[in-house]
Amino acid sequence: MTSFSGTALCLNRSDINTDEIIPARYLTEIEKTAMGPHLMEDLELEGFDPKQDLQGIGVLVAKQNFGCGSSREHAPWALEANGIHVVIAESFARIFYQNMFNCGMLAITLDKKQIDRLFEAAGTSPLHVAVDVDTNKIQVTAGKDTWTIPFTLTGFEKALVKTGGWVGYADRNY
Amino acid sequence: MGKTIAEKIFDVHLVDQPFGEVNVLRLDRVFCHEITTPTAIQDLVARGRDRVFDPDKIKAVIDHVTPAKDTKTARQGKILRDWARRHGITDFFDIGRNGVCHAIFPEKGFVRPGFVIIMGDSHTCTHGAFGAFAAGVGTTDLEVGILKGVCAFKKPDTLKIEIIGTLRPGVFAKDVILEVIRQITVNGATNQVIEFCGPVVDVMSMEARMTLSNMAVEAGATSGICLPDKVTVDYLWPFIKDDYPDKKAALDDFSRFQPDADAVYAARKTIDVSDLPPLTTFGYKPDNVKPVSDMAGTPVDQVYIGSCTNGRIEDLRTAARVVAGRKIADSVRAIVSPATPDVFSRALEEGLIKIFMDAGFCVTNPTCGACLGMSNGVLASGEVAAATTNRNFNGRMGKGGMVHLMSPATAAATALTGTITNSHLFEK
To answer: Which residues from B are below 8 Å from A160, CB to CB?
Structure first.
């Protein structure tokens, strides 16, 4: 199964849209991996440099309504091409959320308090996040601090993650 | 307990409820375009599953970049074209017959009340104007739709939005939906279906209802559904006249897809639009909405009239009424893109194209092009556009460019002055 852990990058804004995750000018590519170098290159966020800041990142943490706008699955593909298989946010746009699970990846919704704590910790030391889909727990390490955050997935979402996505699931079941 | 329209549509399309928590629905239509479909096609081929569930229920169009602008877009068109041919997908619209998907598919009569429709395009919610459950999906959902004819959706919690009052002259469906989004915000309807109803919607044409439903996704909604009525039947009649003895019979049939009086809604909202002024957006989110009067005088570099939101014949008529006999400002360039060949052809017959050209507009072939900054009117960094499109995201029409969303009337008036302008000033 795909690894659902890594160093986390916190993106301090709500409503980050899929145009910002992968601009439309790259939608003329057909191969999913072609999105890789262009992940978030148009995202204007104070102090954010996509070329530098996305290096070695495995998890994104964001605020509300992450992935709004276009239905383009190129957004999850761009994340996947960069080794990012988990996005944690206060809330997600529906299509992006479904696309993540359809690709066998994770979109995890946490309440504002938990998200705020992740942002706070990331401000002082590198944040490492490990998601265990079997126990529904996120293990967070920030410097000397470690803590566990429970989360919920539906049985269907879990099945998609375990079977590597919706095509495999649907092909077996319908 | 009564049901909403979405619940009624789900009931008659339910195939499976895995884990008792998600609804796998049978699809009546899978719409395809050349940006999101080729990757699905290639994946199906790679899996040795290059099949389609029903070639008659799949409709395809090349619309985002057409004619192809380079070898990459030519390749996307070719993959879609070759696939449509080898699977006998006869409703495939290629160059010369192609138009913006959410304009051409309804125009061809492919949508019916009660249908479940998916497409790899977020503005698929447009087709909800016909009383269908239509949702934008990603490429994987599209791929499964093509192969199996099914798609999974959560329980359709419904937000009922009743639009009451009377629209003032110069105020249109576009202003209404911008007001809806302003009030409920960009994620106000996330994971919900919007049911649009009320006297204002009742008297709207199908074109206006499509404008309304088109932007439901800008409030996060899965679909934006208008209730099927006589207006729906009149629009569809050329396509359904052999199926029903008369229009009343069609209306009776479609009444299966009316919400019950005691339907249970996740939320209800009533918006009185009697005092609504023409609206436009500022900033980079579709809920950053202000009266045009507050933005008046803001200079723009480009005016764009077109897209799946406002590129239909009514939109062109409205814009042409403002433009007729006048010239666009020297400081601005103006583009009008009729959304389909039929819209283009009717605009020619009605003399609208001449009005636009005499005023100094560039008239392009039908395409999504500029709306998402792919072709036919991309902005330079630092430029500002007034557009009848649906998204004002940062860089949407070109990196570093800014977009103000507005109605065709306001866009036309803006073209004449070069600054954001209320169309009242040009009323005859």
So the answer is: none
